[in-house]
Design a protein that fits this description.
Helix content is about 80%, strand content about 0%. It has about 300 residues and is mostly helical. Helix 6 runs parallel beside helix 13. The protein is globular and about 55 Å long. The two termini are about 20 Å apart.
Length: about 300
């Protein structure tokens, strides 16, 4: 096997591992939501990741041009703050099946943004056919035993907004990769901006606690409560998984894979998240495993293989 082919294989394996980890995050998040709000989980997760990346690569980035700083800010805003919050808030207005299906359109948005913003030729018949097949599989997986979707305009629009946000993030990542920044330093800078953009949400949670509670954006500052929840072993483990593995390691790994394989091609792997999560929920949460979900998982794999070929 040639060095180039070996490199492509190793980066494909890295992308697959990242998708596997991201597929498991809903289990950790679901467990943490018993003690934390969605906003608290989001802030803690990316603060941990930012600190870990500083520990791994304690070097500055020198003088940044305004254009590069804007790209890092865009990556942090779209890939972390907006994507995560829209996805979490959408679930409060529509059902999880709708959210998982609509968010799964992220690879298509990644291709569209790459074409519109970067001029890349990302569309062809095989790509579109594979995406359609994979998305059909996602629908089967997400519906499970449910035979109809119940639309909610606001919730569904938020879920589509999350997918669009990831598409913009993908375009920003492509440009940053071309500029040759150190992968750890680049993601660390993006996470810094993500945390900056989370500040207005924290202010909102304190200024309008009742409204914030409706979308799981509260922040609890009670000492006794925080002592109890931050010392609980399960919470420590789940937060560490989300912050250190799913965010710090996986975002860096994802960018490395995108740099070698192409952002749009890597994004096709995101179709597999609902399918993998479907099996994880069966194994770890005891959820049912309907035949439609199994068929859907097979269609996802087939669609990704066709689109990526």
């Amino acid at each position: 096997m040639s060095t180039q082919r070996l490199s492509a294989t190793s980066h494909a394996a890295l992308a697959a591992f990242v998708v596997l980890v991201w597929s498991a995050t809903f289990v950790n998040t679901k467990a943490l939501l018993a003690d934390f709000s969605a906003l608290e989980i989001l802030v803690i997760r990316f603060a941990l990741a930012w600190g870990a990346l500083w520990a791994i690569h304690p070097h500055g980035m020198g003088h940044l041009r305004h254009r590069d700083e804007a790209l890092f800010a865009a990556a942090g805003l779209t890939g972390a703050t907006v994507y995560q919050m829209l996805e979490n808030v959408a679930i409060h207005f529509t059902n999880a099946s709708n959210v998982s299906i609509l968010v799964a359109t992220a690879p298509l948005f990644a291709a569209v943004m790459s074409r519109l913003l970067l001029g890349e030729r990302t569309f062809n018949t095989r790509f579109l056919a594979g995406c359609a097949l994979a998305l059909g599989g996602v629908v089967l997986v997400s519906l499970g035993g449910v035979h109809s979707l119940h639309f909610n305009p606001l919730g569904d629009a938020l879920a589509l907004g999350a997918a669009l946000s990831w598409g913009v993030y993908s375009a920003a990542v492509t440009v940053l990769n071309r500029r040759g920044w150190h992968p750890v330093a680049a993601i660390r800078r993006a996470f810094f901006w993500a945390l900056v953009f989370m500040l207005p949400l924290l202010v909102f949670s304190m200024a309008a606690p009742e409204s914030a509670a409706q979308i799981s954006c509260t922040v609890n500052l009670t000492m006794s409560t925080n002592t109890a929840r931050f010392t609980h072993p399960a919470n420590i483990g789940n937060l560490a998984f989300l912050g250190l593995l799913a965010s710090a390691f996986c975002f860096v790994g994802w960018n490395k894979a995108c740099e070698r394989l192409g952002t749009v091609r890597c994004s096709l792997c995101l179709y597999m998240i609902p399918a993998i999560a479907f099996f994880i929920a069966h194994v770890f949460l005891g959820e049912t495993l309907p035949a439609t979900g199994v068929v859907g998982a097979v269609l996802v794999l087939a669609g990704v293989a066709i689109a990526a070929s």
